[in-house]
Amino acid sequence: MEAIYDQIYKKAEVYWDTRHNDIHLPLAYDFAKRLLAFYPEADACVVLPAILLHDVGWKMVPEEKQLNAFGPKATDKAANRLHEVEGVRIAGEILASLNYDAGKTNEILTIIDGHDSRLEALSLNDKLVKDADKLWRFTVTGVSIDYRRFGVELAGYLAYLGDKIEEWLFTPEAEEIARAELTKTRRELEA
Question: Which domains does the chain have, with CATH numbers?
Fold first, then answer.
């Protein structure tokens, strides 16, 4: 099965050269694999392609609109929604080009369509994708990128992230990972 994920990765990667997705997506993919280890009943054949493909739609959002479409100062919900809609289209094309299972493709596309705008999770697979997507925000790498691009003070941004753990994450394992990553990030960046 790993070979198909490698193929999806390669086809998705060409869409990652915006919004630091070339850094975000590999980290989110690793978090998805970590979370799947806690949930053998989840479907890796849905979760892993969904995490690799969930943000490909950002490539279709003009760069000058992106910063207002996500983050603590987001004001442009339409641009954020556009990345989900375009993500569904692109992900569907990628999965079709690989003759990926139609039933799994439908679930993957449903997850992508609303992965940011839909606050509730539709399934365990959706929870794991949503959690893996957000966990990068707590890492040294994610914080280092985000507090600068959002133009906020580091200490304030770290406090903001700490307050969002229970609001953003669905699984207790993701909450635990977020707390551990945030502790590590504080140690490294506030030293």
Answer: 2-189 (1.10.3210.50)
Find the distance separating the first CA and the last CA of the chain, reported in whole Å.
42
The token pair at 165 is: 């753990």
pLDDT value for 1: 61
> Looking at the predicted structure, is the pLDDT value of residue 132 above 70?
yes
The residue-averaged pLDDT of 87-103 equals 97
189 burial type by CB count under 10 A (0-12 exposed, 13-18 middle, 19+ buried): middle
Nearest to 95 by CA among 112, 117, 114: 112
Instruction: Compute CA distances 92 → 21, 46, 119, 186, whole Å.
Output: 19, 13, 23, 39
What pLDDT, on a 0 to 100 scale, did the predictor assign at position 61? 77
Per-residue tokens: 121: 């999770």
Contact 101, 119 (CB under 8 A): no
